[in-house]
Amino acid sequence: MTWALTPLTEEQRAIQQTAREFARHELAPHVDQRDRDAYFEPDVIDKLAALGFLGMMVPEQFDGLGLDTLTYLVALEEIAAVDASTAVLMSVHNSLPTQMVLRWGSDDQKERFLRPMARGELLGAFALSEPDAGSDAASLRTQAVRDGDCWVLNGTKAWVSSGTHAGVVLAMARTDSPQDRRGARGIGAFIVTPDLPGFSVGKKENKMGLRSSPTVQLRFDNMRVPKRNLLGEPGMGFIYAMQSLDAGRLGIGAQAVGIAQAALTYASKYAAERRQFGKPIKEFQAIQFKLADMAVRVSSSRALLHAAATARDRGQHITQFSAMAKLMASEAAMFVTSEAIQIFGGYGYVKEYPVERLFRDAKVTEIYEGTSEIQRIVIARELYSHANI
Ligand SMILES: Cc1cc2nc3c(=O)[nH]c(=O)nc-3n(C[C@H](O)[C@H](O)[C@H](O)COP(=O)(O)OP(=O)(O)OC[C@H]3O[C@@H](n4cnc5c(N)ncnc54)[C@H](O)[C@@H]3O)c2cc1C
User: Which of 10, 205, 260, 339 has the highest local Cβ count within 10 Å?
Assistant: First the structure.
């Protein structure tokens, strides 16, 4: 077992315990079945809502729990250790749409969207990516055109996590005109709801991992969005999305640490039980060194993640820190889950044991909310930014 290096308060330990018990009792029993069937259990939304876990960082005045980033990440790690698909739902909802409306939303938007999102009555999703705009997200093509009291949106968003069940989608679309393209400063953030005419859910992805998290395309066909649903300024949506990804990446980092911790726990237990050549395989130094290398990566990822969370809570600029934490934790998750399979031998390669699922779930943490290559670009760029010189 490894422990958090950051001392947790009594309240943080209590929330960690609540998350751990919820994950064990409510998520663990059918997690493999949901993975096999690529089935999303909608009840999980109400169950998370009942614990307040869909409004963790929303102030109490808007019906949230008003907790800090560190407490949120500690709870998220516990959920991810058991069910990474539920963790991504919780991470996207808490880090992106709720935080965007909290930070840039009007009073009216906070009443209509933030409050029900914090109570878990509306699940939030984040729609930045498109089929031809991934790492280069500012090249997105979904177009918004102003028409009277509405913006008319046309386009396809790709890879939207929880897109099948979302009640609120923060969707980025171009507000500049084709004759006057303004790059990253020509994109708006729109609060889209599935009842708007012209909104439809498209193709559902058949994924390697996170199989019980529905990832879908969303199509907007002449979808009329009331102008009061535009978040902040018309050309600022991309900037809002990028700033929000600082918190988003911490959520993905916590997901990766949870997956890695679970793989380490299973592997160390198995190494104590599995006997070859007349002794438990944990007696072999080759296996001990693997476990040690895995533990180093889990603990150092968690320490960096918690430091970045604490910096966010102090109001520091964390773009570089959050990219570092996400990069380190996601690469640790891949390393640790791969070594866990090695320790299980042939039994690690079959679906009977959970390390096979953990390995598949870990991979996406190196891809979404910015690939590892993009995190390295962000980290290097920040070395030369004013904040760090
Ligand atoms: C399961 C899942 C859930 C997702 N959920 C969401 C969601 O809820 N909302 C959302 O908006 N998006 C979501 N995404 C999309 C995700 O953020 C993108 O997949 C990711 O940003 C990468 O984009 P891409 O897949 O188009 O890859 P590409 O951008 O095409 O990249 C392909 C390869 O090229 C590399 N590359 C690209 N540019 C550079 C460069 N400048 N330098 C070096 N290497 C580079 C990449 O690192 C990668 O290795 C999700 C994706 C997945 C798989």
Answer: 260
